[in-house]
Structure formats: structure tokens, C-alpha cells
Amino acid sequence: MKIVILDGFTTNPGDVSWESISRLGTLKVYDRTEREKVVERAKGFEVAVINKTEMTADILSQLPDLKLIAYLATGYNSVDLEAASQQGIMVANAPGYGSDSVAQHAIALLLALTNQVGMYNKSTHQGDWVKSADWTYQIAPLVELRGKKMGVVGLGRIGRRAAEMASGLGMTVIANNRSPQKMEGVRMVELEELFRESDVVSLHCPLTSENERFVNRDLLSLMKPTAYLINTGRGPLIDEEDLAEALIEGKLAGAGLDVLSSEPPAKDNPLWKAPNCIITPHIAWGSREARIRLIDIVAGNIAAFMEGRSENIVN
């Protein structure tokens, strides 16, 4: 089996191994592949392993040997699924590898907002503690989470883990999901009720054509001015202009975002100027443990394909 990885760097910058995939056949690895080089690099290979590389109908038509596209990701919107199916190319994704890591990052963003560890660390290193008249000082309020209410939007694997972690902090959890769900200790509510009641809203839903920018001025206006918004799902779930406006006008206490509407983001993104807005570069999924699991899931998908079985096939 001839296997090519077209954009492997974000998954493996050198600290983990491709061995579970390389032992399945002949493997060629590229850190990144520009659009104009996709056909050249994938030609003659039966399996293409990708993360964000676009596989359009035009590109696929020029790859007659390709039989499987294996995603180093859960999402698979960079492949033309209809064209792949018409050409007999299977597409497999990798679900579940980062549930714990992403949920943990959501809680980390929340704690960063409520405990302001980064701000206090910067202050002490700048000498403020050395110059303090007292043995302690406060430059930002601290917020205790016990007894607060967490609203989870999207009760899939990651949302459930985030709910469990929030419960472990003593928070009450409510949730909203597009299809009926049950989880012990979690009350299901309508979306407007969730935004109105929650002290923290955490987004864990997939992006669809129906929910793009659904977190807009209308929903944000329902939130308490003391509430926080966390997003480790997809950037386009939020109308960033409306969120920036809410933060600037003090209608929201803060936001913790690991994803933005475009990545890398534009220099003029309105959130750069918004107060108490913590932004990390889409890293929630990227713990070493999660990336090892990801590679192993992809290897399992390829092995299943070689054995004539369907594992995580999405088309």
C-alpha cells in the first residue's frame, strides 16, 4: 500500500511517531502541501492522509489510483464527498481522539478568565509584588465557580466531558443539543433559556449551514453581564463583530476562544480590540496524548480499508 501524508506537521511536528501508519506500507510525509502541488504529490498513491488539504472534484479526477482519503481530523469539509464517492474513493475521519484534551482546554480558558493567572503572573514578574505595601494585592477580581451554572451547547463526546469537568468543580450543568439527549445530572433546556440562565456558556456543537454565526447580538443580549462565553468548537459559530461589541460595552464579562472565523485570523479581526478576551491558536486538540491517539485511529482506518472493512467511513 502506497500512502502519502500531505500536511502532517500540525499533527506531528517531530515529537511523536508515524510508525503505526508506516508499517502498513510505503509512506511519504510532507509537512505542508500547497494547493498547486496536491496532484503532483498524491499521484500514484492509493491512500492520501490529510488534515486541511483541499481535495476538490478537479483534483480528485487527476488521481486515478487514489482509493482512500484518511483524515487526521474529525471534520472532513475540505473534501468534495460527492466527487469522491463518484470516483469510488472512500473518506474516513478520526472521531473521539481529542475529547478529553478539548474539554480540558475549555475549562482552562474558563479558569484563565475567572482566576486571571496570566495577568497576575505578568504583574509579579514586572515587580508589582516586590513593590507592594502588603503581603498580597488584587488587580482583577477572582470568581469562584462552585454554585455557578455552566450551559453546554452540544452534548457530544467533548460536551459531555466538559459537563463532567464542570460538575467536578461544583457547577450546575444545563445543556442544549440539536437532537434529544440524556445525561445524568444535566438538565436539557431550550437555547434561549441556556443563554439567559448560564454563568458560563461553552460551545461544543459542530458547524452546519443552519448554525453559522448563531451566537449573535440577539443571543448575547440574553446573557448576564457577569457571564463568560467559551468556544472550543468552530469559530464561525460566533458573530465576532457582535461578540466584540458585547465585550467592549461591558454586556459580557469575558470570552475564551480557541477558534476564530478564519484561521490564521485576519489582522483586523474585531476581537483583537475586545477587553477580557482570551484567544489561543486552535490548540485545544493538540496535546501529545491526543495526537498519538489520532495517528493510531488513522492507522486503524487504513488497516481496516486494506482488510476490506469500513472504519469511520463518512461517504
Which series of helices and strands comes N to C? Answer: EHEHEHEHEHHEHEEHEHEHEEH
Alpha-carbon distance between the two ends: 21 Å
Largest sheet: 7 strands, parallel
Helices, by number, come to 11
Helix proportion range: 25-40%
Task: From the alpha carbons, calculate the radius of gyration and give it in angstroms.
Answer: 22 Å
User: pLDDT under 50 segments (min length 5)?
Assistant: none
Mean pLDDT: 97
Shape: globular
- CATH evolutionary superfamily of the largest domain: NAD(P)-binding Rossmann-like Domain
Q: Briefly note the structural class of the backbone.
A: alpha/beta
Task: Give a structural overview.
The chain is of the alpha/beta class and 315 residues long. It folds into 2 domains: 2-97 and 288-306, NAD(P)-binding Rossmann-like Domain (Rossmann fold, 3-Layer(aba) Sandwich); 99-279, Rossmann fold. The protein has 11 helices and 12 strands. The protein has helices at 19-22, 38-42, 57-61, 81-86, 99-115, 117-125, 157-168, 191-197, 217-220, 240-248, 288-306; strands spanning 2-5, 26-29, 47-50, 68-71, 90-92, 149-153, 172-176, 186-188, 200-203, 228-231, 254-257, 277-279. The strands form 2 sheets. The chain has a 7-stranded parallel sheet, with helices on both faces. Helix 9 links the parallel strand 9 (200-203) and strand 10 (228-231). The relative contact order is 0.14. The mean pLDDT is 97.
Secondary-structure map:
Elements: E1 2-5, H1 19-22, E2 26-29, H2 38-42, E3 47-50, H3 57-61, E4 68-71, H4 81-86, E5 90-92, H5 99-115, H6 117-125, E6 149-153, H7 157-168, E7 172-176, E8 186-188, H8 191-197, E9 200-203, H9 217-220, E10 228-231, H10 240-248, E11 254-257, E12 277-279, H11 288-306
Parallel strand pairs: 1-2, 1-3, 3-4, 4-5, 6-7, 6-9, 7-8, 9-10, 10-11, 11-12
Helix pairs in contact: 5-7
